[in-house]
Amino acid sequence: MRHFLGLLLGIVMTAVLTAGAGWASQDVMRGLVSTAGGAAAVDPVRDTKALVAIGAMVVAGLLLGLVVAGRVSPLATFIPSMVMLAWTVIYVLDVTRALGLAPTDPTMDPNIVQAGKGMQDLLAKGVFAMLGLALFIPVLMPSRWAGRHDAEEPYEEEPVEPAGYY
């Protein structure tokens, strides 16, 4: 049951780290692009869209940290790591095919298109490769695969009788 829940958590983490971080990165990058183009800087305090994007990235980072450091099934980190590493390998072998996997069709919802463009950006900059490797490390730890062992009784030493006469 523990590994099944880890599998479900891994699927959710894959969606959060790819689509959620991709969507949020576009709004966060909007502020950097506007200052580089000579326009006024985007102030996150006054721009609620940028503030929500920063909050989404914080939540994605918090969930990433909890899954990596927490005592959950290693499948929770294995699933997203394999998706990100496989997508990076496809990117290295065939850039157009890898970029075509992100949902950027203009007929889709604008939020999905924004997430797709963010995914392409994170893939091209190597962020998915870095996250994939970081998520794969907990899979290599044997203690993550074993369940918790409940001790039946604590070990108690029996008193030793003195040997010999006094």
Name the shape in a single word. elongated
Radius of gyration: 23 Å
Number of domains: 1
Number of strands: 0
Strand content: under 5%
State the order of secondary-structure elements, H for helix, E for strand: HHHHHHH
**Gap between N and C termini:** 60 Å
Overall pLDDT, averaged?
83
Largest sheet: none
Helical run tally = 7
Helix content: 55-70%
Summing up helix and strand content along with how strands pair, one would put the structural category as: mainly alpha
Low-confidence spans: pLDDT under 50, at least 5 residues? none
Descriptive overview:
The protein is mainly alpha-helical and 166 residues long. It has one domain. Helices cover 67% and strands 0% of the residues. It is built from seven helices and no strands. The protein has helices at 2-36, 48-69, 75-93, 95-100, 110-124, 127-136, 142-145. Helix 1 (2-36) crosses helix 5 (110-124) and helix 3 (75-93) packs antiparallel against helix 6. The longest helix is centred in the N-terminal third of the chain and has 35 residues, at 2-36. The model has no long low-confidence stretch (mean pLDDT 83).
